[in-house]
Design brief:
With 242 residues, the protein is mainly β. Among the domains are: 5-138; 206-239. The protein has 1 helix and 18 strands.
């Protein structure tokens, strides 16, 4: 299974005095996509049977001619997915250096959830004037990808139910009883084996709390001891204790 990515696109334009139209060709600048994670945190990903640790970092893309990315084709971001722990990742898009010709522009940041194998068009999810912030926005689910290669043969299943017994055969003649042999001497005690290596310490999972209230364990029934609950509104964190 390959690593999942999400294509992020956007169309930006400025108002033109000519014929009262919009003009995307003059808009330029940069947009930085930063994962909504604590500093130094990472993802655990399994690809083709191999486990990897993926540190995350911000990615800056150019805006040229009113579009994100080289040639306006957008930018690909890591999107976690079923082969990743945790399986979801959100990004905060922050704009800088926006200009339309000689004029400076400003645009509020937007937070969205990446869609594995899908497309997020920030043109449709960026909050408009007079509306409340939508929090984390999730784009449309991408098309179903081609099936991957066939996996290795699985372990043998459980034994089936016992069938009905066949007809009983004729009893054979009983053979003579053999002589019981003498018990052999007790063997020496073997050496104690080497001490095993300690097991790996599980990586805590970060659970995102979308509300502004103090999170409760009832809202996160699948959390484990050592996991972290982060309130997205202000970045506050709670560690799940035993």
């Amino acid at each position: 299974m390959a690593t999942n990515f999400c294509l992020v696109k956007q169309n930006l334009a400025s108002l033109s005095d000519v014929a009262n139209t919009v003009d995307p060709s003059t808009v330029s600048g940069r947009v930085t996509f930063t994962p909504v994670l604590g500093e130094g945190q990472s993802f655990h990903v399994t690809v083709d049977g191999e486990d990897y640790t993926i540190p995350t970092a911000g990615i800056t893309a150019v805006i040229d001619g009113g579009k994100i990315g080289n040639n306006g084709e957008g930018v690909s971001l890591f999107a976690a997915g079923d082969n990743s722990n945790p399986p979801k990742i959100a990004y905060r898009a922050v704009y800088s250096g926006l200009r339309a010709g000689d004029s400076s522009l400003r645009l509020n940041s937007v937070t969205f959830e990446a869609v594995p194998g899908g497309v997020v068009d920030l043109t449709t999810v960026t909050p408009v004037a007079g509306t409340p912030s939508p929090g984390i926005v999730r784009g449309a689910k991408g098309d179903r990808g081609e099936p991957g290669p066939q996996g290795e043969r699985g372990e043998r299943g459980l034994q089936g139910e016992r069938g009905e017994p066949g007809p009983r055969g004729d009893a054979g003649e009983q053979g003579p009883q053999g002589i019981q042999g003498k018990q052999g001497p007790k063997g020496d005690k073997g050496d104690t084996g080497a001490k095993g290596d300690p097991g790996e310490i599980p990586t805590p999972i970060i659970w995102v709390h979308h509300k502004t209230t103090v999170p409760t364990l009832a809202e996160f029934p699948k959390v484990s001891v050592g996991d972290i609950i982060e309130r997205l509104s202000d970045g506050s964190r709670w560690k799940v204790e035993a």
